[in-house]
Design a protein that fits this description.
By secondary structure, the protein is mainly β. The chain has one domain. The strands form 3 sheets. It has a 3-stranded antiparallel sheet, with no helix packed on it. Strands 4-7-6 form a 3-stranded antiparallel sheet, with no helix packed on it.
């Protein structure tokens, strides 16, 4: 069960939300990318949703250059620079939280 602290003002507006979330490891996938100019890749993952899901690039040549955006039954891996991606295999961990 999630726990934490939430505070509302006199008007009923939530002003502080320090809620903890239960996070659960779901699995790992890999994404092989080639050198070139492509900067976005769609990866299918059944059951994934835009909220309550998290995909994290764990291992890569330079993991600071990638981030993931969850969607319905998939997520998108984005390369931050506008070009010059190196050929490599990304390892991506999938989590869900409530």
């Amino acid at each position: 069960m999630a726990s934490g602290l939430q505070c509302w003002n006199a008007s009923g507006v939530l002003v502080a939300d320090l809620t903890d979330y239960n996070i659960r490891y779901v699995g790992t996938t890999t994404l092989g990318i080639g050198a070139g100019t492509t900067t976005s890749w769609n990866v299918g993952w059944g059951g994934m949703r835009p909220t309550g899901w998290l995909a994290i690039v764990r291992q890569t040549y330079n993991s600071n250059d990638f981030y993931c955006i969850p969607y319905n039954d998939s997520f998108v891996v984005q390369y931050l620079p506008v070009s010059g991606v190196y050929a490599q295999t990304l390892i991506i961990d999938i989590y869900t939280f409530e």
